[in-house]
Amino acid sequence: MPASPSLLESLADAVGAHAVVTDTAALAASSHDTWPLSTKRALTGEHPNQADVIVKVSSTEEISAVLAAATVESVPVTVRALGSSVTGQPLPVRGGIVLDVSGMPASYSVDETNMTVTASASYNGGQLEDALAAKGWTMAMSPQSLYRSSVGGWIATLATGQFSSLYGGIEDLTIGYTVILATGEMIELKASPRAAMGPDLRQFFIGSEGTLGVITSVTFKIFPVAEAQLLQTFAMPTVRDGLAFMREQVSVGLRPFLIRFYDVDEARHAMVDPTIDTPILFLGSRGVPSMVETELAILSELAEKHGGEALGPAGAEAWMGRRFDFSSVEKLLAEPGGFAETIEVAHNWSQINELHTAMKEALAPMATEVLAHFSHVYSQGTSMYVILLGKAESDEAAVARLETIWKTAMEVCLSLSAELSHHHGGGLARSPYTKRSLGDAHLILRKVKAALDPAGILNPGKLGL
């Protein structure tokens, strides 16, 4: 339904009439992100997640004023930055306001002594990384969406990067941030280098997907650009052998910056070679030269112990050069009836091989190709990233197929007690399964939500809320 005149008047008072947008085309555009299901819906002319009004803010004071107006009118507010989510986090489910923070002033400052960078939350991650690289530093946060995503979005979605096995995920890289609550207060949360004054309150908002507050600035760890880097590619006998290697290398305390293991189907894509007939492992070490050489030598010895055959660095080097390329999925989605999806999950070592088998078998009838790789290694297990590629008879049929794929994948994960998401977050894709996934712990989330957002205006319909 259209926004009420009183709401539009309050918003115009808060941000200026020029920043309050209600035209049909803009509302339709803001009802989609880069979730493949949403992309296909847009191609069919469907806009089921449409706001009543878009508000473009340019200051923290404006954010507080918009939240105050929304509270008075009991209107939902969904925060949107660069719209790179692939699971529907910035899509409204009850109309209301899309709070567009992409126009917030971009700024950053580096503290080289304490090795941190503080940036406005709307800052493009790739642009910030490039600015740091020019000074000899890196955030070491490298999602495939690096140049499409905002640094505040990384916190909101509990994101991680391709090199997390060395540097950790966003929860490890975040020093602190500021957030505006639904009730208007601006809060600074920090712990540097570590704090033991009660619970780590930063964790409330990391992964909260805009349901608890609006993140406005962030402070991350930074690292000197590595002196040396070595890469290697291995052919592994089976998926089970590759997973056994991944488990052993972490058990002895190795920390390669790159560890990616592809099953046979995805290995052909990873190597850009349709003749590949074995799983493929990419490994990389970076740091001071002597450490890099030693670590890669030990990694190579362990890989060979598990049946690996060294193929040289070329495969891993080529992947490093194209690791931000998402064009193959985008091109397929643009074709009539074409569909593609990426579903990342995680499990412990004892069941990750079973999860791989079950997901492949359940999803195989629904796509032309079902690909899988493993990365982001932990002491207890690893993530599994599944890519589906296919073509239906129409875009409408592709939408229905993607909906079935998500239902099937989530049910397989729940049946094996796997984690439903490793780094894309919940969004609309996983919200229906949140309570089953979190179990009793969902009560804590509901209580925190009630305390921090008593009017329930922030991003309803996400995380099972």
Describe the structure.
The structure is a single chain. The strands form four sheets. Strands 15-12-14-13-17-18-16 form a seven-stranded antiparallel beta sheet, sandwiched between helices. The chain has four domains: 5-100, Uridine Diphospho-n-acetylenolpyruvylglucosamine Reductase, domain 2 (2-Layer Sandwich), CATH 3.30.43.10; 108-224, Uridine Diphospho-n-acetylenolpyruvylglucosamine Reductase, domain 3 (2-Layer Sandwich); 228-321, Alpha-Beta Plaits (2-Layer Sandwich); 327-440, GMP Synthetase, Chain A, domain 3. It starts with a helix and ends in a 13-residue tail after the last helix. Helix 1 packs antiparallel against helix 4 (60-73), helix 9 (239-251) packs across helix 11 (289-305) and helix 14 (352-363) runs antiparallel to helix 15. A hairpin with a 4-residue loop joins strand 5 (108-111) and strand 6. With 465 residues, the protein is of the alpha+beta class. Helix content is 36%, strand content 23%.
